[in-house]
Amino acid sequence: MQPPSWLTRISGRRRPAARDYRYVFVVTYGRSGSTLVQGLLNTLPRTLVRGENNFYILPQYRSLALVRSFKKTHAAHGPAKTSSAFFGLNEINAGDFVDSTRSLVTRQILGTRKPSEFDVLGFKEVLWHRVTPKETTGFFNFMDDCFPGALYVLNQRDHEQVAGSGFWQKQEPDEVMRAITRVEEIQQYLRETRPDRVFDVRYETLTGEDTGAVEAQLRGLSQFVHGGCDDVLLAALRQTLKQGHGPNPFGASRGRRGSASR
């Protein structure tokens, strides 16, 4: 038996064994009801979807983009020679960035959970607006490389309800709307470029009184991620809807123009 790695000694847990997972990511903005969507996804069998993480995957992409740009700029400056200021630059492998990012994200999602317990992993994030328009194509190509076949749940809510919540109160209304609009631009980009890998969810529908519409959303979400939805699973999803999710569940008011669950 091999001795524990330095990572095990520091963190107290072993790295999960390498295996294939499917991945799902919730693309949305703050106070859109995304924690409720997270709860619904975690109700699905063998699915583990974590909460927000300050979008640490974006700097991972930017690191790779910096290296690629730098290699292109200095390719003619003899990076294979020991006498070059850029010695070894040609040896930097983009594939290593992809593999390490997949491994990093997978380990962080699993945490202390057993890798064998899950088939689907992911997280929900509300900071997708940080992806600039110029980065959009490159970033999602990077996501495809890291997480082949990744699914995206596109969550939306009424803008006024969202902007009136405590999450946004320290920002100017115009700044808030720019962030929301930017996320919706990204959502539309994903609909256009990966139509078979996106599913739209609307908070008003999930929490509305139209039972038929609610059931359609729940069954659709389950079918999209899990591949089906029997009556037992539908009942479990309905039960999840009754639970409080986020910092202010069930519309506890914090906003200047309204309130919203995260």
Give structural attributes.
262 residues, alpha/beta, 10% strand, globular, disordered C terminus
How does this model look, in words?
The protein is of the alpha/beta class. The chain has one domain: Rossmann fold (3-Layer(aba) Sandwich). It is built from ten helices and five strands; from the N terminus they run αβαβααβαβααβααα. It has a five-stranded parallel β-sheet with strand order 2-3-1-4-5, sandwiched between helices. Helix 2 (34-43) runs antiparallel to helix 10 (231-241) and helix 3 (57-73) runs antiparallel to helix 4. It is globular, with a radius of gyration of 21 Å. The model is unreliable at 1-18 and 252-261 (pLDDT under 50).
Brief account:
The protein has 262 residues and is α/β, with parallel strands linked by helices. It has ten helices and five strands; from the N terminus they run H-E-H-E-H-H-E-H-E-H-H-E-H-H-H. The protein has one domain (18-251): Rossmann fold (3-Layer(aba) Sandwich).
- Radius of gyration, CA atoms, in whole angstroms: 21 Å
Gross geometry:
globular
Main beta sheet: 5 strands, parallel
Strand arrangement, largest sheet? 2-3-1-4-5
> What class do helices, strands and sheet pairing give?
alpha/beta
CATH architectural type: 3-Layer(aba) Sandwich
- Taking the alpha carbons of the first and last residues, their distance comes to 46 Å
Instruction: Tell me the number of helical segments per DSSP (H or I, 4 or more residues long).
Output: 10
Give the domain tally.
Answer: 1
Uncertain segments are 1-18, 252-261
Portion in helices: 40-55%
Number of strands: 5
Q: How much strand content do the residues show?
A: 5-15%
